[in-house]
Amino acid sequence: MTPVELSRTVLHAVRRAVDAGELSVAVPTRAVVAPPGPGGCGDYATGIALQLARPAGQPPWRVAEVLRPHLLGVEGITDVVLTGPGFINIRLDGAASAVGVVGEVLRRGERYGYAEGSDGRVVRLHCPHELRAVVVGEVAARLLRSQGARVRVSAEGFEPAWASVLGAEVDAVGVAPAELSLDVRPVPVPASASRELLALGRDAARWALLHPAAHDLPRTGEEHLVQRESNPLFRVRYAHARARAAARNAADLGFTAAPGPLGAGAEQELLAALADHPRVLAAAAVHRAPDRLARHLVTVADAALPFLPTVLPRGGEKPSAAHRARLALAEAVGAVLAGGLALLGIDAPDHL
Question: Which of 28, 41, 50, 178 has minimal Cβ neighbours within 10 Å of its Cβ?
Fold first, then answer.
C-alpha cells in the first residue's frame, strides 16, 4: 500500500463511519498521512481525527476510536494504534507495502508523487528583480503544477543571462498589480557573487540556489562542481547513474525487475524514503520551498548508495526473485531521482 492509497483508505474509513451513523461530518477531500512523529509508532500516522473533532462535536480521541475498526479490517493494514491527543498510527504489511510502493513508482515513473489531475487552483507567483527569487519562483511553480494547480509566474525584472545560462523562465516581466504581493523572497544572492554563480553552469548554479532553505545565504563556490561525496549534488546524480547502470547490466544478464518482498536494513530505509516522496512534493509545493525537495533527493541518494551494489548477482550466482525485487527498487530510485531533478531544472545523466 502506497501513501496515496493509504490516504484514500483513511478517507474511506471516514465515509464508512459517516454512513454507519457513527460520525456526523462532511468527508474531507484529503487525509494527510506521514511517518509518525515523536511518540508515534508504526509506518504512518494521520491527524484526521483532530481535523474532524470540532465538526463532529466529539473529542479527537473519540473520533480516532470510531475510525480505528474501519481501518483494522483493511487488507494490508496489520495494526492501528492511537497515541497522543488522537493520532492514528498505522502499521502496514511489510511485503505488501514494498510491492505497492515500488510498483507505484514504476507505474508512474518520473511523475510519481504528482497529482492525478487538476485540482482547480489558480496560483500567481511574483518575484523581485533578483536571480535567486526568479529561480526559486520558477521551480515553486513546477512543484505547484505537479500537485494539480495552474500557475503563472511574473518577475519585476529579468536578465538575459538567467535564461541563457540557467534556463530560467517566467511568464511575464514588469510591475505586478497592487493586490499581488512579492511572495517569493528568499535571501538574495549578493550582486558581487552573481557572476561567480553563473560561472558554475546551469546544473551546479541551480543546485546552489535551490538546496539551501530560503532564509539561508547560498554558497556560490566551486564546491558544487567537485566529483566526490562531499558534494550532495554529485551524490544525487551519482546514485541516479548507478541505478540506471544496474538496469542496463541486468538486461545484459537477461533478467528484469519485478517488485517483491525486500530485506531489512538498507532496503527498508530506502523504501521509506521513496514512500515519503509524494508527501515531500506536496509540502514543497504548499510552502513554495524547493529546498525541501532538494534535501529529500539527498536523503534518497544517501539511502540508495549502500544498497545499489547488492542489486546484481555476484560470481556464478543466478538471478533470483530477490534480485528482481532489488532491481525493481533500484529502478524506482532512478525514477524518483530523475523526476525530482527535473522539477529542479537539473539534468540527471545516465553516465557519470
Answer: 178
